From TrEMBL:
Pfam families: ADSL_C. This is Adenylosuccinate lyase. The keyword Iron does not apply. Keywords: Lyase. Residues 17-91 form the Adenylosuccinate lyase C-terminal domain. SMART domains: ADSL_C. PANTHER family: ADENYLOSUCCINATE LYASE. It comes from Brevibacterium casei.
Length: 91
């Protein structure tokens, strides 16, 4: 049985500035019809800037109308939901 310490997990996620969610944002854009290359070219610079400037990834994503015109706030909430990474906990 694996013991998960949610507070520690959240602290570790915060250390990445939310970059662990970049793939979910990328895939959500593709699923909504954006061409993969365009989605990558849109998300990847935000991920790099987030890491280099220590700016929360979501903050940069929400500032880009190319993304927010495709993904609603609710869809972004789902992209940034840490529960996705806990699917196998308590199974």
């Amino acid at each position: 049985r694996l013991t998960v310490y949610e507070d520690n997990m959240q602290a570790n996620i915060n250390k990445t500035f939310g970059l662990i969610y970049s793939q979910r944002v990328l895939l959500s854009l593709i699923n909504k019809g954006m061409v993969r290359e365009e989605a990558y070219d849109t998300v990847q610079p935000k991920a790099m800037k987030s890491w280099e400037t220590k700016t929360p990834f979501r903050e940069l994503i929400e500032q880009d109308s190319k993304i927010t015109d495709v993904l609603s706030k609710e869809e972004l909430d789902e992209c940034f939901n840490p529960k996705h990474h806990l699917n196998q906990v308590d199974t």
